[in-house]
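Question: what's this shape?

___
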Amino acid sequence: MSEIKDRLKLHSDPDDRSGFADIIGEYSWEGTTAAFDKVTAADVERVLGVAAANVRQLTPEELLVLLSDAAAPYLEDMAVLSRRFTQEKFGKTISMYIPMYVSNACSNCCVYCGFNHHNKSKRTILTMDQVENECKAIRRLGPFENLLIVSGEFPSICGVEYFADVLRVCRPYFHNLTIEVQPMRTAQYKRLVEEGLNGVVCFQETYHRENYNTFHPRGIKSFYDWRLNGYDRMGRAGVHKIGMGVLIGLDPDWRTDLVMMGRHLRYLQRNYWRTRYSINFPRMCPSESGYQPNVVISDRQLAQVTFAFRIFDHEVDISYSTREKPDFRDNMLSLGVTSMSAGSETEPGGYASTPEALEQFAVTDSRRPVDVTASIRAHGYDPVWKDWDAVFDR
């Protein structure tokens, strides 16, 4: 009964209903999956030739070609193009950010997530005093200015008013504030923008509608259309930067998921052209739930994904989190990646104390921020702590 009420609430405002979910049915999942087997070496060479000429953007169908097995032998050629386009748009820089988890309470039952509502582990919701202590502790780690505020999805406990309070507390400490929380209404995003919100990150996890429902059986997150149309609500609200992502390893057809995300990115760029975009494609890590990935892709395959998306879109921010291994992050920082996290703690209160709260996933790169930035400089790149200010929008 509660989920029926939730569904009715989500569909009460016409402005919050429409979006990419209305047109995604135009793209066949099965047809896209089958297309990968038809790609030839000649197709790859043609797309790389178009990309090298740099006379137009590639299409999502050409992105598919670069993600295919047929493109794997051309990885070095793709790396050269990826580095070239990245340096042309971003220079030799890596933007630094750090996540701050404010709550692990969640009403969803995502089968793969450590925050699953059914997990019998300690839940924590930070008070504003604790949030400020976290801010102070993060500032002692390094000169971070880009803060990613993360929470489990529990709107009745951590809703728009809670996050407005968090933003007010964090604003004196950081210039750029991004949230990764439950999708909200257009009016709620506007409210948070007024409170100093700069960006929103939201993972669709998978674009496969039926499998999405299997992975997200209960809670607000189980409403596929509501989540998918959330990016449109962010755009309508004037959010400065929107972050997208799929969780690689969740759906067996992971390449199809990535093509769908490429189509979604192009749709958003056409409709909300004043907004900046970032993408992320983390590989699944073990969670408290014990869920294991349906697919495990290699470092070489993830490198191909990174190169393909950079060649597909020269301006999109490509982010690598501490889910990835140190050596791999170091090797990729000059080949297409433009932002990285460092020193991440994935449980609430993890910077100011040593809590026993539930964390969302295991961190693989546990190096201190000073060590990560030293590695960036050793590769001839500069870590950037602040790359945006409200004055740029005036």
